[in-house]
Amino acid sequence: MKTISMFHSLLSLALCTACAGGQSQTQSLWSETMKGNGEVLAAYPDLYSNYWEYTYSVNESPDVALCIKGEFPHARYFSFSLYDDETGTAIGGLDDFDIIPDEGCDNPFVTTSQREKNTFTLYIVPPTMDEAQIEKLPSKNICRIDKGVNRLAVCIRHYLGTDAAGNSDEYGGVALPAITGCDIHTLREVAAPQRAVSNINSFSETFAPQKADTDREVPFLLAPRGQYYPNNATSYLYARTRLEADSVLVFSFIPVTIPQRVEAYRQADARYWSICVGSAANTRSYYSVCDANALARPEEKSTFVICRQQNPRLEEIKAGVEAANRKGGLYNLIVWDSDKKDLNGNPIGDVLVIMYRNILPNQQWPYSISNMTPTGYVDAEGEPLDKITAPDKQIAHIALGDYGPLGLKYGTDEFLSGSFGE
């Protein structure tokens, strides 16, 4: 049995970057770690991810490009994303396997490397920089800032970061990259622009009851592309329901197969998958299972069982799941504590949002969730289920067959009778 619980990291942030004139000093240009499991980030983050942002005023430094130099981290997935910090809109970035390594180094997301250290250099250039000058930069990793962007946020993402030995590590076993400035006219190193306060954590929380929360059937829909600091390399299926204390939610599907070698990353059906369960009341994630720790086998259905900590027959549910797994089942149990307090002291409640996340889903794979049609979130014009116009494209178990989840809620007695295993 897999009972999913939160994990906590105790590492602190320290980095050293080069400043004007070649001087080195400790700077806090990157934010402290925004931890997916820190119960702080909104918009249902993945518990196995870590983020860092650096934000600055493009208006105040129009003649400065950013030079970002660092080591490739040890992680399942790594990326840079650029956002207009005034709107949260994604305006560019680079995924790990598209980053060209420095001369004499390998990109360990492209080829298995035996080198002790692999580095990269990335330039982020303002719209005022001449193309001829951009061509002279000593790296082909170029991200351009759109015209009209007044404040830029640069975000690093790591998923399943480890140290070189494979042990979980907040920073992926390397220091965060150094940030320096580059004069766009002379190409000489200058001080990096002063860090500004970002809007990345100002996501507004909204909660409204939905009539579908009480339905027994819990369909999964493709989330529309996020408009607020999205990771454009990721697609999400989502479902929402109210889970009573004496009910059990069950859904089964064949998860996407994840490559085992970096050489297969570019053509993979997806790089990573996870199931995250969050609170509709505050849009924060509290429990998660990912491909690395799920009970799953390639091209077989995995089953996810969610019940509340307050279920009076919880121990029997655990025992039933354990018995099913001893017989070769693939049952992943998540116990939701509706009385758990969030950081504001409010119970996280009994309305759950379940996210099935795929990073870099391959649209050429016929069962890719990225081939579905997104369904709008709740708004003044109705609930998501009111927006279903093409079920064969919008409802996961119809669009994807066995590769698409469909949730059903059972009474505890019914669940324990064995009907959940049929």
Your description of this structure?
This protein has 422 residues and is mainly beta. It is 8% helix and 32% strand. The protein contains five helices and 23 strands. The strands form five sheets. A six-stranded mixed beta sheet has the order 1-21-20-17-23-14. A five-stranded antiparallel beta sheet has the order 4-5-11-7-8, with no helix packed on it. Strands 10-9-6-12-13 form a five-stranded mixed beta sheet, with no helix packed on it. It starts with a strand and ends in a 6-residue tail after the last helix.
Number of strands: 23
Which regions are unreliable across 5 or more consecutive residues at pLDDT < 50?
A: 1-27
Mean pLDDT metric: 90
Overall geometry comes to globular
Major sheet summary line: 6 strands, mixed
Order of helices and strands: EEEEEEEEEHEEEEEEEEEEEHEEHHEH
Quick structural gist:
The chain has helices spanning 131-136, 314-326, 391-394, 396-399, 412-416, and strands at 2-3, 16-18, 24-26, 34-35, 49-57, 64-71, 77-84, 89-95, 119-125, 142-144, 151-159, 178-183, 189-190, 217-219, 221-222, 234-242, 247-253, 272-279, 284-290, 302-308, 331-336, 351-359, 406-411.
